[in-house]
Amino acid sequence: MPPEVALADCLFLGIDIGTSGVRGCVIDAQGEELASHRIELEAPRIQGACIEQDALIWKQAIDNIIKTLTNKVNADYREKSIAALAIDGTSGTVLACDEQGTPLSFALMYNDARCTAEAAHVAAVAPADCGAHGASASLAKALFLLEQHPEAHHICHQADWIAATLTGRYGLSDENNCLKLGYNSLEETWPNWLNKLGIARQVLPDVVKPGSHLANINAEAAAELGLPESCEIIAGTTDSIAAFIATGANTTGDAVTSLGSTLVLKIITDRPVFAPELGIYSHRFGEHWLAGGASNSGGSVLKQHFSQSQLDAMTPRLKPQQPTGLHYYPLPATGERFPRCDPGLKPQLDPRPDDDLSFFQAILEGIADIETEGYQQLAKLGAPKPQRVFTAGGGSCNPAWQQIRERTLNAPVIIAEHSEASYGSALLARQGFLALADSADKI
After folding, report:
1. What is the pLDDT of residues 20-79, one digit of tens each?
2. Which domains are assigned to the chain?
3. What are φ and ψ of residue 128, in 5° steps?
4. Longest alpha-carbon distance in the chain
5. Do residues 83 and 230 touch, judged by C-beta distance below 8 A?
6. CB-CB contact of 432 with 213 (8 Å)
7. CB 119 within 8 A of CB 134
């Protein structure tokens, strides 16, 4: 931090690159959100298992967001300026670039599943607890892209590539994004087994921790976007981890449940937890680790049986203090991944009571039971029991469901004030900026 700049005058920008849009958020030194802006993205191109997107549309959207937010900051907070910026992106979205960082093809999206042959090669050499297994993992996609473009100099994730367009420094990434590329977070190195795949080490990025300083923005980008040349670009993370950071969960035993179309659980633990058969891997989270899993259950089950207007009408009439006594395992279709790994598990929604209200409440109770079973499964693998559970997603606004979950979880349930990934990235930018300033003060 330049000596003439006071922390109170520093603002921090977080950018989240999602599938359907890009969102930016500006916060002050106290974490108050001052401005935000969202731009929709053109939908990815889908052809069978191939799902890809032009990386240049990310760049265009992000440039527009930064310009919009810097104009607002300059107009409303003239004495303040954006001191640092961090970016998160969808985990597993990758592209191959030439030496100057120009994309050699469209990016393969996080849910692209074409690379089955490459995934089989990975499975033959990678340890079972490695996060790089599967056709949707970054490593299988990297092998595919390198086969198509042997001239490639860099394999980049979304967040890496956008950050590099701002600094001019390609070949850097964060260890959360690199987990699915085969990076070993425990040993903090690229493992030797990657050599058996014939992947050249020089195309893999140098890896830093999320929140680390990457570089200052280059002069050309600063001038074009309205950012000060002193603005620091901070290493970002994946979108799900940025959303976790946004909630404020920060100590061992803090958990976050996302109640969206699916049910996603994450908890802070002192040691890494791995169970590949359940889709459980651990990301480094500051001095701790973040472990979690995702069930197929969730809000999508409710939408199969009720319209939104029906749900809104019934919610105030729920009786959380009077359990239905029904024990459902609500799934939208056959198959479950976590907390039970059973592709043949059928939805359990019988017997159905005569009235819709009881049926609605029984589904909520069933999802709460799955949430509790999920945290119990994580505890069996070495994670702590939840001490408090932050809640994000559309289901977090249902007070009766909150009471049901508190009873089932036997832990306080807190509605997260913030859950946007862009807000989490802004916090990460602030964290990296303060760490760099503290380090400079000690020199």
Report:
1. 899 999 999 999 999 999 999 999 999 999 999 999 999 999 999 999 999 999 999 988
2. 7-241+421-442 (3.30.420.40), 249-415 (3.30.420.40)
3. -60, -30
4. 72
5. yes
6. yes
7. yes
Find how far residue 165's CA is from the centre of its chain.
Answer: 21
By C-alpha distance, which of 295, 311, 310, 280 is closest to 366?
Answer: 295
pLDDT digits (tens, 9 = 90+) for 262-306: 999 999 999 999 998 888 989 999 899 999 999 999 999 999 999
Return d(Cα 14, Cα 227) in angstroms, integer.
14
Q: Which parts of the chain have pLDDT scores under 50?
A: 1, 3, 442-443
Q: Which two tokens stand for residue 233?
A: 């670009």
Helices 421-442/239-247 angle, 10° precision: 80
- pTM for the model: 0.91
